[in-house]
UniProtKB/TrEMBL annotation:
PROSITE patterns: ASP_PROTEASE. It comes from Gigaspora rosea. GO terms for molecular function: aspartic-type endopeptidase activity. This is Aspartic peptidase domain-containing protein. InterPro entries: Aspartic_peptidase_AS (IPR001969), Peptidase_aspartic_dom_sf (IPR021109). The keyword Secreted does not apply. GO terms for biological process: proteolysis. SUPFAM superfamilies: Acid proteases. Keywords: Aspartyl protease, Hydrolase, Protease. Pfam families: Asp_protease_2.
Length: 106
């Protein structure tokens, strides 16, 4: 598993809870964030995984540092596979560049 999918050095990489996963066969480091209310995916990774956005999203997001952002859109059935089990989750699409997928409490 490549550790550069978070675009961070090893010291910062180890600060988040994570696991190895796949989305549409693409291996990722899945960040587990109990403080996030939604599953969030970067637009760059979405393109790499060959998944289309289902619709625009008109709800403002508030990031971890309190900064408000407009997401690009939403996906109704985003397939995340961990340990051979696939779940479908709704996912918000952002322009973030420092992660592929964050799973929240949804």
């Amino acid at each position: 598993m490549r550790r550069d999918c978070l675009n961070r050095n090893d010291d910062q990489y180890m600060t988040s809870m994570y696991c190895e996963a796949q989305v549409n066969g693409e291996p990722i480091i899945l960040i587990l964030d109990s403080g996030s209310s939604r599953c969030v995916v970067s637009a760059g990774f979405l393109k790499k995984a060959g998944i289309q956005i289902d619709r625009p999203l008109t709800v403002m997001m508030v990031g971890v540092h309190g900064k408000q952002r407009w997401p690009i859109g939403e996906i109704d059935r985003f397939p995340i596979t961990v340990g051979g089990k696939t779940i479908m989750s709704r996912a918000v699409v952002t322009e973030a560049g420092n992660y592929a997928v964050i799973v929240g409490n949804d």
